[in-house]
Design a protein that fits this description.
The protein starts with a helix and ends in a 5-residue tail after the last strand. The longest helix has 26 residues, at 115-140. The protein has a 4-stranded antiparallel sheet. It has helices at residues 2-10, 20-28, 104-113, 115-140, 144-153, 169-175, 180-192, and strands spanning 31-32, 37-39, 45-51, 53-60, 63-71, 75-76, 90-93, 98-103, 196-199, 202-205. It is globular and about 55 Å long. Helix 3 packs across helix 4, helix 5 crosses helix 7 and helix 6 packs across helix 7. With 210 residues, it is of the alpha+beta class. Helix content is 40%, strand content 23%.
């Protein structure tokens, strides 16, 4: 477990390049194995997904809305780090999942003692802001094609410039709150407009708009 923990910590963007003091203290934090099921972080703590996968869901009546997918190295709990109120979301873990919980006091100490950690946390939060901006843009999109286009613009690309959504069309349609038929029509429309190329499960944005 300790060897796996040390290896996992080295791959976490939040800790990348941090000093030995920060890394050694991170290694002393307990690892939790929540298993399959739902989890809600407590206020005043930051949670790192060491290994495994998770979904971030929100309940809307009888409907479950997928907000995001998490993989090893991702963090959550930022919204409640300095607030007693938590967002109305739930984290649903896959099996064989391990998390590292960092209390607010430890986060503050890392920021004060390690400039690299401070830079990393700003970078992670900047990425989250871009993600939230893409969600807002999706809500204000005039049609399903624009909603899909804006979503793809904010996804990471491989070295050839292709976007890989990393989920099925059914899952993507739920994320974008549209039917699968509308999603397929949106893909066809963007390709017909010359804004999108599709090869297998990969997409390339060929025209960028402000």
């Amino acid at each position: 477990m300790e060897k796996n923990k040390s290896i996992a910590l080295q791959k976490i963007p939040l800790l990348a390049g941090c000093g030995q003091e920060t890394l050694k203290e991170a290694e002393t934090l307990p690892v939790l194995m929540p298993g399959r099921g739902c989890y809600r972080p407590n206020a005043g703590e930051l949670v790192i997904l060491l290994w495994g996968k998770a979904r971030v869901n929100r309940r809307e009546g009888d409907k479950t809305v997928l907000l995001n997918r998490l993989e090893a190295g991702n963090c959550f709990g930022y919204a409640g780090l300095y607030s007693d109120s938590l967002p109305d979301t739930e984290i649903v873990f896959s099996a064989q999942t391990a998390i590292l919980v960092i209390p607010r006091e430890t986060v503050e100490r890392f920021i004060m003692q390690d400039p690299v950690f401070a830079r990393n946390i700003i970078a992670v939060l900047s990425k989250k802001v871009r993600f939230l901006n893409s969600k807002i843009a999706g809500y204000t999109a005039k049609d399903s094609g624009e909603k899909l286009y804006r979503h793809l613009l904010n996804l990471p690309r491989d070295r050839d410039g292709y976007v890989i959504p990393g989920e099925s069309m059914a899952s993507l349609s739920r994320r974008l709150d549209m039917s699968r038929a509308s999603l397929y029509r949106a893909v066809d429309a963007l390709m017909a407009e010359g804004k999108l190329e599709k090869i297998g499960q990969k997409y390339k944005i060929t025209v960028r708009e402000n």
